[in-house]
């Protein structure tokens, strides 16, 4: 239907072209107008006419001669003018001109309307040649009956069109993907820091030890009992052993620091820890041990060791 | 209280002497600091030592330097396949008048003042000699000429080379158990030490080299008392006792403690050994090491430092693994120290 309408319009246009006076010289090769179907248009429709214009080189279409988008009369508005330069082939210069009109005519019965022809100008710098893009006519159709046969109020407004669904599947996929990324990052962070179910995992012995120290010494202010202080030291020693993969004694500390350089940051405190545990475990001297490393500092050291293990400071 | 302070000051004086003793030996022996430290520990623990190593790494030089630095009477004998116990005790010969004479042999020549008895190439001697030596080491006495000779200050050093196995006699387990330590002497690894040993003419003549060592840094007669004072004054806490017992347990039953040596059936590896005597020697040596480090308590490091030398030769491994014993026992001990937690 549409193709038929276009070819019909083409024939009309050719006819018009033949009828139009041939301008001086043969600078204009052809103007072919392609149009939509010539009937069944209603108020508010947009019609797009496209014209293929072929000029002889070196003539070029003068852009100044193109119409501005504007209301042409009380029912017709030119809403868009778009010119595309299709380049030259041989000695022909081709253009495509797209003209968009909107009609505001409210007919009571089908009525023929005309879109007027357009005057354009071609120039090669000195000579100027006028030519015409032909007009076009079509049938408009009414939107309503002349006399309403409907029940109820005449001229009632039609219900609003339901809002068309906006395509959201792409956005939704993006949202789900980024939520997945956030979740994975959270899991990795929990694994790294040793939260929740990762608290027991291997490779974070100091995190476990820090918890054990806090459990053994709940109130740093009061003097600790011997077993509690022992337990706290022991859990830290087990963490050192697990980190090094073998028993770490005070004499092994230089080797431990070169294998795990991060712990050099707390070297002084670690040495005090080992000195204190020597006094406690092998000298049986709780007082000297707690003087060497008071419980509050022991708890602080456990926290720092945990941070160092995590890679922080 | 006053007595205690006196003990402390005597011990710290002796500690200075022990460090000087090490330094004196170190003058003539390069790159063997660990061996010298172990020999010092053995000297102050009054234990006998068996040195083992390749030919020409300086075993004899170390022992001669040590004997000179200890002071007191020194005797040595070379083990040979035809050496008999009697050769140690008397020496039969014709004197200048052509009359047969019997003189005391190397063991008796110095009388009761003998402080260092050095047995070279002990594995070349026959089991009869080994058993005489066993008695000398265990009881510090021998029977000869219808009476008993006592050597209260004697310390036996023996060496053997581990390369040759022909015409040699393996020491009986009982004799080996009497040695406080079996020390492996290796070629020094320091580049500087190696270069000096090869190129410095000072090291080419052992006799003149040994003249550098100050003789008699220690008094052999006093060593026994000092050793006893060390054993009394260095404490072992209950935690350390538990640790040593755990080590012992792990040595007898490594599988239960998760100790694994690669390519070895852990159930079969250890057949026995690690005697209570061995453990008491271990603690004795650990006490001396703690004292040498200037501490009045044993810490696990002390136990670890002397453990391989004191314990390795007391572990009996399955015959299948006997040929690779040195490596396997070394790995076993390393594994035990890695697995048994201390404190």
Automatic annotation (TrEMBL), chain A:
Domain of life: Bacteria
Keyword Transmembrane: yes
Record keywords, A-Z: Membrane, Transmembrane, Transmembrane helix
Membrane spanning stretches: 175-198
Protein name: MxaA protein
Organism: Ancylobacter defluvii
TrEMBL record, chain B:
A Pfam family this chain is assigned to: AAA_3
InterPro entries the record matches: AAA+_ATPase, ATPase_AAA-3, CbbQ/NirQ/NorQ/GpvN, ChlI/MoxR_AAA_lid, ClpA/B, P-loop_NTPase
GO molecular function: ATP binding; ATP hydrolysis activity
Source organism superkingdom: Bacteria
Domain AAA+ ATPase as annotated: residue spans: 45-189
Protein name (Swiss-Prot/TrEMBL): ATPase AAA
Species for this entry: Ancylobacter defluvii
Lineage of source species: Bacteria, Pseudomonadati, Pseudomonadota, Alphaproteobacteria, Hyphomicrobiales
Gene: moxR_2
């Amino acid at each position: 239907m549409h193709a038929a309408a276009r070819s019909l319009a083409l024939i009309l246009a050719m006819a018009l072209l033949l009828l139009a006076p041939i301008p001086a010289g043969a600078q204009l090769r052809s103007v072919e107008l392609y149009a939509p179907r010539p009937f069944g248009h209603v108020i508010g429709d947009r019609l797009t006419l496209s014209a293929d214009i072929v000029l002889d080189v070196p003539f070029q279409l003068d852009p100044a001669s193109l119409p501005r988008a504007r209301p042409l009369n009380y029912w017709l508005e030119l809403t868009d003018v778009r010119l595309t330069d299709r380049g030259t082939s041989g000695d022909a210069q081709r253009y495509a001109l797209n003209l968009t009109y909107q009609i505001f005519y409210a007919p009571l019965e089908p009525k023929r309307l005309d879109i007027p022809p357009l005057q354009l100008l071609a120039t090669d710098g000195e000579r100027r040649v006028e030519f015409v893009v032909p007009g076009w006519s079509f049938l408009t159709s009414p939107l309503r009956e002349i006399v309403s046969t409907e029940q109820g109020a005449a001229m009632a407004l039609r219900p609003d069109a339901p809002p068309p669904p906006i395509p959201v599947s792409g956005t939704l996929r993006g949202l789900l993907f980024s939520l997945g990324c956030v979740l994975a990052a959270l899991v990795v962070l929990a694994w790294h820091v040793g939260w929740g179910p990762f608290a027991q995992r291997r490779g974070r012995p100091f995190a476990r030890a820090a918890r054990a120290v806090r459990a053994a010494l709940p109130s740093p202010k009061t003097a600790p009992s011997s077993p509690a202080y022992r337990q706290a030291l022991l859990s830290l020693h087990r963490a050192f052993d697990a980190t090094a993969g073998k028993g770490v004694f005070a004499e092994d500390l230089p080797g431990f620091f070169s294998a795990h350089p991060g712990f050099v940051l707390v070297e002084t405190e670690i040495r005090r820890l080992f000195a204190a545990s020597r006094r406690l475990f092998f000298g049986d001297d709780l007082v000297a041990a707690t003087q060497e490393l008071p419980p509050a500092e022991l708890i602080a050291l456990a926290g720092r060791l945990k941070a160092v293990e995590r890679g922080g400071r | 209280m006053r007595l205690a302070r006196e003990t402390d000051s005597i011990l710290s004086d002796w500690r200075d002497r022990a460090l000087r003793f090490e330094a004196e030996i170190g003058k003539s022996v390069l790159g063997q600091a660990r061996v010298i430290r172990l020999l010092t520990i053995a000297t102050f623990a009054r234990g006998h030592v068996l040195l083992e190593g390749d030919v020409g790494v300086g075993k004899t030089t170390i022992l001669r330097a040590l004997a000179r630095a200890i002071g007191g009477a020194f005797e040595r004998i070379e083990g040979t396949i035809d050496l008999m116990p009697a050769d140690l005790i008397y020496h039969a010969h014709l004197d200048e008048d052509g009359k047969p004479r019997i003189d005391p042999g190397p063991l008796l020549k110095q009388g009761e003042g003998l402080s260092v008895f050095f047995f070279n190439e002990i594995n070349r001697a026959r089991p009869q000699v080994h058993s005489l030596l066993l008695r000398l080491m265990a009881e510090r006495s021998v029977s000869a000429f219808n009476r008993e000779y006592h050597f209260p200050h004697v310390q036996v050093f023996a060496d053997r080379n581990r390369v040759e196995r022909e015409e040699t006699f393996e020491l009986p387990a009982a004799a080996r158990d009497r040695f406080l330590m079996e020390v492996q002497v290796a070629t020094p690894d320091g580049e500087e030490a190696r270069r000096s040993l090869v190129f410095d003419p000072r090291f080419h003549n052992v006799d003149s080299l040994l003249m550098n060592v100050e003789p008699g840094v220690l008094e052999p007669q006093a060593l026994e008392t000092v050793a006893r004072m060390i054993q009394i004054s260095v404490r072992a806490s209950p935690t350390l006792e538990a640790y040593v017992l755990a080590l012992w347990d792990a040595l007898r039953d490594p599988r239960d403690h998760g100790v694994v040596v690669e390519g070895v059936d852990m159930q079969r590896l250890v057949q026995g050994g690690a005697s209570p005597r061995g453990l008491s020697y271990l603690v004795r040596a650990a006490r001396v090491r703690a004292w040498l480090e200037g501490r009045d308590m044993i810490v696990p490091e002390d136990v670890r430092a002397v453990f391989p030398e004191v314990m390795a030769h007391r572990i009996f491994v399955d015959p299948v693994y006997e040929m690779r014993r040195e490596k396997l026992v070394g790995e076993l001990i390393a594994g035990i120290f890695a697995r048994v937690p201390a404190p």
